[in-house]
Amino acid sequence: MVSAHNPVSLLQHAGPDMYRKNAFRITGLGMGATAREIRRQAEKLRVAARLGTRSEAVILPLGEPPDDTATQQATQRLRDPVCRLLDELFWFWPARDGEEDGGLDALRRSDLDAASQSWEDAGTTVAVHNLAVLNHAQALDHDRFDACGRKLWKEAFAYWRRVVSDDTFWKLLESRVREMADPRLTPGTAEQLRAELPAALLSVNARLAVRTAKDDRSDDAAEHVALMRSSGFRAATVDEVLRDAIAPDAARIRALGEKAQQAVRADPRHGAEVTWRFLGQATPLLDLLESLLPEHHPVLLGARDEVAGRVLPCIVPYVEETDEWQTAGELLERALAIAATGAVRDRLEDNLETVRGNLLYGTCWFCRENPAHDQSACELKMYGEVRRTYGRIRWKSLTIEVPCCAMCKNGRSRRNVAIGCAPAILIVLLAVTFLGADTLIGAAIIGIMVAVLVMRGTTRYTSRRAAREFPPIREKLAEGWMFGEKPPGAN
Asked: Which of 358, 399, 362 is CA-nearest to residue 379?
């Protein structure tokens, strides 16, 4: 109904079902219905509802006859001057001074085209208002954006704009307010309703835009937003109404983020699961806002930053508990794709760089699976930026540690031993075969020396081959650096 603080509020009254719940449409009564007529009609409607029939022809009949509940609510609204005034504003007015109204007669015959033509020909203040109501009610009943639906919406807004700007109409409404003599209806009520009418009308389309977007009818949602922006009403009013319509969904995003953060604080080990779930819940809400708002609308930008910004405080305790840098990086990349403003993006990028660094040096480069151990790191020396001046050589050198796990280090050592021993064994066998056992000791010594040399060369070769792709080494090689402690010929 209406609030005690603001008893006459179009914004609370207007909605997609405003005509279907209109007391005059449900009861079939006219604007001038008396208390006695209301009681008699209510009884007729109750009987008709029990029998499942219509009591008589009504204007714009509903698909199904109203039930007892709808009838009781409608008659109650007609007995309440405030509610009745609002329903009168959105229903058909009779011609002034008892003149014959061909439009209303045509409506009672369900001849909508004849009613529309009659009011078009009349062109009076009341006729224009009735055309606004007729097209608006039909557009909402039609509920499709085909050629007919678009025409109805376009004409509804055009007629309502004329009503808003017609001083005569609002003087008529002011007179009606005085006739009702209700203390809640003041001399300023008519002007208040006039000021609220554009936002009230636009709010209908805003609610429908939200509803259709949630029903995966994005084309219809876009049509409603386009209608609002082409309605002829102020752009600021359109933005305000849209913001109010999506406010519950924007608030839900904040609530989901707070809930996720609380859950991670309570159980950091499951932080990734909680954060992924939060992103899954928030993404459809962001899609909803994106379908209704311009790309750079403050509400949309704020919502995107709200979602992206919640990821970081969820990740930190999770990583501290689990050291799962890979998952942390994936979550930060997802958040970075959502973030809207530079400040949030910069914060996420800084943390993502840290995560990638920890992931690079915290994982074995050779197997790419096991955690790296400091004691197992493969150290490679490099030199670069060589300058030769006046017979002297100057250069820079550094040592790069390639992260490695104990298993890969041991595996390389065993492989190198096997590879290195093979030539030694072969030398010993050949010596025994062709030179005799007397030369066995000398051959063994030679074989051991060969094995050591082969192992050293193989170790260097296999380590460098795998390590060349390690990003810090790859960068240095691209800059012209070489493996080794110093350039050839340098002292």
From this structure: 399
Question: Does 172 score more than 90 pLDDT?
Answer: yes
Cβ neighbours around 301 below 10 Å, total:
17
Helix (H) or strand (E) holding 58: none
pLDDT score, position 491? 74
Q: How many residues does the chain have?
A: 491
**Long-range pairs of 188-197 with CB within 8 A, sequence gap ≥ 24:** 189/8, 189/85, 192/8, 193/8, 193/10, 193/89, 194/164, 194/170, 196/9, 196/10, 196/11, 197/10, 197/160, 197/163, 197/164
Contact assessment for residue 129 and residue 90, using Cβ atoms and an 8 Å cutoff: no
H or E element at residue 395:
strand 392-402
Across the range 348-369, mean pLDDT stands at 86
Distance, first Cα to last Cα, the chain = 95
- Which pLDDT tens digit goes with each residue over 392-424? 899 999 999 898 988 888 765 544 444 445 454
Judge whether 101 and 94 are in contact, CB under 8 Å: yes
* CB-count exposure of residue 349 (10 Å: 0-12, 13-18, 19+): middle
Burial letters 403-431, b for 16+ CB under 10 A, else e: bbbeebbeebeeebeebbbeebeebbeeb
pLDDT in tens, 12-71: 888 999 999 999 999 889 888 888 998 898 888 777 767 766 656 678 888 777 778 888
CA distance 262 to 274: 10
Could you tell me the CA-to-CA distances from 165 to 6, 90, 160, 191 in Å, in that order? 24, 16, 9, 12
CA max distance for the chain: 140
